[in-house]
TrEMBL record:
Record note on quaternary structure: Forms a multiprotein complex with MMACHC, MMADHC and MTR.
Enzyme Commission number: 1.16.1.8
InterPro entries, per database record: CysJ-like_FAD-binding, FAD-bd_FR_type, Flavdoxin-like, Flavodoxin/NO_synth, Flavoprot_Pyr_Nucl_cyt_Rdtase, Flavoprotein-like_sf, FNR_nucleotide-bd, NADPH_Cyt_P450_Rdtase_alpha
Species this protein is from: Quiscalus mexicanus
Phylogenetic lineage: Eukaryota, Metazoa, Chordata, Craniata, Vertebrata
CDD domains in the record: methionine_synthase_red (cd06203)
CC per GO annotation: cytosol
Name of this protein: Methionine synthase reductase
Amino acid sequence: MCCESKRRFLLLYATQKGQAKAIAEEIWQQAGAHGLEADIHCISEMDKYNLETEKDPVVIVISTTGTGEPPDTARKFVKKIQDKTLPPDHFAHLQYGLLGLGDSEYMFFCNGGRTVDRRLQELGAQHFYDTGLADDCVGLELVVDPWIDGLWLALKEALQLQKDKEGMNNAVNAVSSSLSTAPHAVHELKLSSEVQNLKLEDEGARRSDTLSQKLDDINLVAPARDTEPSLVHSVPPVSQSALNIPALPPEYIEVEFQDTQGENLHLSSLISEGRTFEVPVTKAVQLTREDAVKTALLLELDIADTAFEYQPGDAFCVICPNNVSEVEKLLHILGLSEKGDDIVCVKVKQGTKKKGAVRPQHIPERSTLKFILTWCLEIRAIPRKAFLRALVECTSDAGEKRRLQELCSRQGASDYTHFIRDSNVCLLDLLHAFPSCKPSLSLLIEHLPKLQARSYSVSSSNLYQPGRLCFVFNVVEFPAGPSRPVSRKGVCTGWLAELVAPLLHPSKNSQGTKGESSSTEKISIFPRPNNAFHLPEDPSVPFIMVGPGTGIAPFIGFLQHRQKLREQHTDWEFGETWLFFGCRHQDRDYLFKQLQCFLKNGTLTHLKVCFSRDSSTSEVAPPKYVQDVLRLCAKEVARVLLKDGGYFYICGDKKHMADDVSDAVVDILSMEMEADKLEAMKILAMLREAKRYLQDVWS
């Protein structure tokens, strides 16, 4: 169908990790079955579309990154539309629908989408379809699937309304006057907790495969006596249902092996965020005792000979590889163990039905197979339903095929959430659970997302340690479980721990002290500055830091920086500083006992610590968590925030700490102001808006 047929709509996506792009491509794939054509572009490709002159409906799919910012690919677009000189009717001609992606574990849920939505409204644009906000915390598909279902009717009505208006503009006045009495044909969709109950109104155009299979037609993966569902086994009603499964994504990649071996690309070619720096690891220290629940490591990098710059509170990214043994296992399953070092040429498949198909940017046109699997593809990614649908076609066993169909179907949505998404199942786990599934390399390139660099908070000050950058992390552990046959370490933290093992455990014959070495182990990094999580510009302003566990990392940089400023500027006035730190055991995971040094030299005014798992013999039990200690210091906390105009910083786990700290601050403000909680919440919201209540958290 040609774009001039008036069935066209513009489809824009802004993605950070590939989710928004994948959803936009799903919309594009379904559009044809509804008699529509999506003109799809990344929102950063502003030379390929023009919203100022766009007449057709616009659909936008946009994610959120960092602390509520739009993704990197949307920054130029957002900057452009936030131009304050634009008139309020700048986009009065524009009709759009927006789908925002986010995670409610974070403070500014879907703020990337909300920011664009709000600004388009301010500039006069009109919704033809209600905004959808999908939550990765509970499963994006709970909103995404029904939002896409309802999109088609809304688009058709918007296009018809547009066509009617154009025709009536050319008609006589009588016809024009009749237009004003016509009902407004904008489709509305309520995206609430009942969203999964929504259905397409024009079922005939739904592009999915309906499969009706009876139990006696298939070989069950598990014995019939099993009454509990699992990754490989279903129970009624799912096991007896006809299934609505996604359309099979069109193949669009082909690979060609060359017998010759060659050199791989430099890692800097893998990122688009800017300049990368290859720097040596000069020091590694284990901060926790061997019997601690978690292993925390501190690494020091030498950046003296680079142009890398940072401020305390900034973050940076580490380019990391997939686990070597996992890559080897994947090569074995693919039957390509002997070809790991062979050159692979990746190109778009001739005759593909995928419109605008291009080789993924993160996949080199020519490199070794091992390089692609090690540095380019996120083989630990949780498989999306479209990937499961494609894997169905690679599975020979009837029972396994049926179960994969169930897991990607609407009827199996709960099983997908429980056994795949919440269980952090990856491709290797699936291939172990479904041994007759033998995907091709091209399929993996089509469906596995880009291997993302991992972000870490800086734990040092360039003023205090010139030419050095430190960071702290826990070595992440994923225990074995019903859906995961083996335990695993985090992709990046496990790699870093293995990389610095010689520094942590030097041999008896090596020279130098423990934790330091002349080792030339290097890692590639690039900066990711934080726009807000910095020390107050005015050094006389007091501030409070809350950082249990490795959440203390950026505050070490804060204190180092403050100490040097005090030494260099003896005539300056410095505000008081508070640090609330907590861990499980005082003797096992008290990460920075040298905090006492900051306390003694006056850099740190108040240090409050707590230990959640230590037993106590005192009559009054000591506080276990940082939020408990905050409540004990309620008057001082309220004074710093309300009277002294101070700042409040939180760093650490979002789900199990930051929300509890926020609740404690609300209680403190309510109590000290003698106001109700609603008023206290308004004050906290004002502090956030003024960037005096700042968070650097993760889930």
